[in-house]
Amino acid sequence: EAQRNIYRLLNTAFGLVHLTAHSSLVCPLSLGGSLGLRPEPPVNFPYLHYDATLPFHCSAILATALDTVTVPYRLCSSPVSMVHLADMLSFCGKKVVTAGATIPFPLAPGQSLPDSLMQFGGATPWTPLSACGEPSGTRCFAQSVVLRGIDRACHSQLTPGTPPPSSLHACTTGEEVLAQYLQQQQPRVMSSSHLLLTPYRVAPPYPHLFSSCSPQGMVLDGSPKGAAVESIPVFGALCSSSSLHQTLEALARDLTKLDLRRWASFMDAGVEHDDVAELLQELQSLAQCYHAGDSLVD
Predict the structure, then answer these.
(1) How far apart (Å, rounded) are the C-alpha atoms in residues 169 and 182?
(2) For residue 142, what are the CA distances in angstroms to 24, 86, 88, 224?
(3) Cβ-based neighbours of 85, under 8 Å, separated by 6 or more
(4) pLDDT class of 277 with cuts at 50, 70, 90
(5) CA–CA distance, 227 with 243 (Å, rounded to integer)
(6) Helix (H, G, I), strand (E, B) or coil at 83
(7) Residue 27, number of CB atoms within 10 A of its CB
(8) Do 155 and 112 touch, CB atoms closer than 8 A?
């Protein structure tokens, strides 16, 4: 187990550094709690029951998030290109981003989109999926957010003449609701938001992970585990976050504790001590890009 963790650490560190050198944007995806030497417990989803030891479960969840957060540049009708999205998120050398998702988005029957968003309060609405720790208390520099699977009838349900209970309820479209919500949560962050009516399909062979959802992914009380859910709404995001400063520095610290002479098989693969020294320098330089500096709109 110790050897596997060390190899995972080395491969993660080398992978991040080499990918950032040759890519416009890099996003680690993991249900683990840490990228470092000591694994932390897997993340928790309030409305999912999954087994983190089963690749079938983990890959399904990560595929759901990946399919959602990449929607902005995959749709023919979208004005956003992959290059535009990468440029927005990776400014000032911040080529590594984090991913997060709420799976499923907790919309109850008869509930409006503003009501659902307000139930999060000021907390970050999505579960982190990049093994960079909890996003609370960290700073977001730029983000791309996608909400999919919310019917137009749920965007606003106020009857004419009813005073809106919040500024979100005063919005006339779902796109306005989502943009207003992001502006309220993080007013100094450059945000790109997309609302997609099409839900995410979770019919077989997708694993049975949903504990309290209707067939359309609505959150229910007392629904039996393993209910036949056909599709779900998903809330996902890519974020350039200051949490990466701590994560990348922690990777560098873990590497300094290793004596590679004890791991001959890794050295036999062609890795030299100078490579590791250069790797440490690159990791520390990359970490400094995420020091709580200015955002795009400062």
Answers:
(1) 14
(2) 15, 11, 7, 39
(3) 25, 72, 73, 144, 192, 238
(4) confident
(5) 36
(6) helix
(7) 20
(8) yes
**The dihedral of CA 90, 94, 95, 97: what is its sign?**
negative
Q: Which stretches of the chain are assigned E, i.e. beta strand?
A: 98-102, 127-128, 140-148, 190-196, 200-201, 231-232, 234-241
Distance CA 99, CA 130 (A): 6
The pTM for the full model equals: 0.89
Task: Report the C-alpha dihedral over residues 46, 231, 146, 33, rounded to 10 degrees.
Answer: 30
Extract the tokens encoding 253.
Answer: 């610290």
Cβ burial of 224 (10 Å; 0-12, 13-18, 19+) is exposed
Q: Is 157 helix (H, G, I), strand (E, B) or coil?
A: coil
Q: How far apart are the first and last CA of the chain?
A: 45
CA 10 remoteness from chain centre: 23
Residue 138 corresponds to which amino acid? T
pLDDT tens digits along 19-50 = 999 999 999 999 998 888 887 899 999 889 99
Stated as kind and residue range, the H or E segment containing 215 is none
Amino acid 35 reads L
Give the torsion through C-alpha atoms of 29, 35, 41, 47, to 10 deg. -20
The stretch 82-95 carries a mean pLDDT of 91
Instruction: Say how far apart CA 6 and CA 261 lie, in whole Å.
Output: 13
